[in-house]
Amino acid sequence: MTAFDLQTVRRELHQIPELGFEEEKTQSYLLTKIQEMATDRVEVKTWRTGVLVHISGTNPAQRIGFRSDMDGLPILEDTGFDFASTHAGKMHACGHDFHMTIALAAMEKIIAQPIKDDVLFIFQPAEEGPGGAKPMIASDEFLVWKPDTIFALHIAPELPVGKVSSKPGLLFANTSELFLDFKGLGGHAAYPHLAKDMTVAASNFVVQAQQIVSRRLNPLDGSVVTIGKMESGFVQNAIAETARLEGTIRTTEASSIVLVKDELEKLIKGFEIAYDCQIDVDYGSNYYQVVNETKYVDQFKNSLQHTDITYVQASAAMTGEDFGDMLKEIPGFMFWLGVDSPYGLHHAKLAPNEEALSVGVEAVETFIRSFD
Ligand SMILES: CC(=O)N[C@@H](CCC[C@H](N)C(=O)O)C(=O)O
Questions:
Q1: Which of 150, 183, 347, 351 could cross-link 65 (Cys pair, CB 3.0–4.6 Å)?
Q2: Which residue from 300, 312, 308 is spatially nearest to 366, judged by alpha carbons?
């Protein structure tokens, strides 16, 4: 049991989603909750819009870190919930409201009954972009409390409530954002021969880019090029002078990200000639793969044996997570928490089952106590 209601906290957080490094309301909400549960063992630091909470152990030999991300997505919520987002066009569509609620509740339990070791709860901004993990772990605020091991969870819509899953080794892919700006020549819709149509150029680019995955990369290595957003033109009867594509590259091999970028650049050169246009590319933020340390995955799995939580073996996924950048520096692992939603991550109707909140709290607390 916690002193606060998990569902209420999750719903209050759900109503105030904020984009990366804009999480001011979320930060102040978390700080209020943390103050309510703080004792003289607890120290709090802020880093940009993030929060670090250090709980001194009774006889510390090491420090265990648990990380929750904080940001929402630029998605217009379509759940119909009476606790839907109050921030127009923004939504907790990746479950970070769940992650933060679970972190707060697990923290409350560790404060109430500290373990031997120190524990650090990390609320990290900007996971969806531009990436808060890398700058956070390089900050003085983090380095003074750098954990010896670190772990995190992510909600899994396709997994039933009561189940968690993970695996040793690769869990999530390498990622790079992709932004392409096309500049041609606009004109009247009736005179295509006098214009350089960027709707046609960008549309063909989307199709051609798919062949990098199917024809240039080793089919045994996983890779994805997804264009999630496409914009061009202003009106139905004018040829578009500009177009913009926004997407993401995913690969299971760190080195394949470079290969995909090389191939994209060849394509860009070809398109600039073929469509007589200019194409500018920007790769935005890049996240390193999430690689789990076997010993901690085993410890997690074993720690759950005396609970009702079922551990199942996961497969690697092409999702990305800047937690990979933390795991590159600090050994640990990440696990999926079953939330049984009919709609998936990043869907405007994502509806995780709130019964999974207490399962998440139990899994996190149980793993932390397994160091005792
Ligand atoms: C778990 C999850 O859904 N993470 C995001 C991370 C996004 C990274 C970046 N903005 C990109 O799109 O490359 C994901 O989309 O996998």
A1: 150
A2: 300
What is the C-alpha separation between 100 and 111, in angstroms, rounded? 16
Instruction: Calculate mean pLDDT across residues 329-350.
Output: 97
- Asked whether 68 and 121 are in contact (CB, 8 A), the reply is yes
For the question of whether the overall pTM of this predicted structure is more than 0.90, the answer is yes
Angle at 90 between CA 86 and CA 92, to 5 degrees: 90
Superfamily of domain 6-171+289-369, CATH level 4: Zn peptidases (3.40.630.10)
Marked catalytic residue, from 69, 108, 293, 321: 69
Q: How far is Cα 296 from Cα 149, in angstroms, rounded to an integer?
A: 9
CB 11 within 8 A of CB 2: no
How many other CB atoms sit within 10 Å of the CB of residue 314? Answer: 18
Structure tokens at 212: 């990098």
Note if 293 is an active site residue. Answer: no
Overall CATH class of domain 174-282: alpha beta
> For the chain, how far is it from start to end, CA to CA, in angstroms?
21
H/E segment holding residue 155:
strand 149-156
Backbone angles phi, psi at 251, to 5 degrees: -145, 150
pLDDT in the model for residue 1: 45
What ranges do the domains of the chain cover? 6-171+289-369, 174-282
State residue 324 phi and psi, 5-degree precision.
Answer: -55, -35
The pLDDT tens digits for 54-70 are 999 999 999 999 999 99
User: From the CA of 308, how far away is ligand 1's center (Å)?
Assistant: 31
Residue 183 has a pLDDT of: 98
Q: Give dist(CA 82, CA 231) in Å, integer.
A: 32
**Cα–ligand 1 centroid distance for 248 (angstroms):** 8
Q: Which of ligand 1's atoms lies nearest the C-alpha of 176?
A: 13
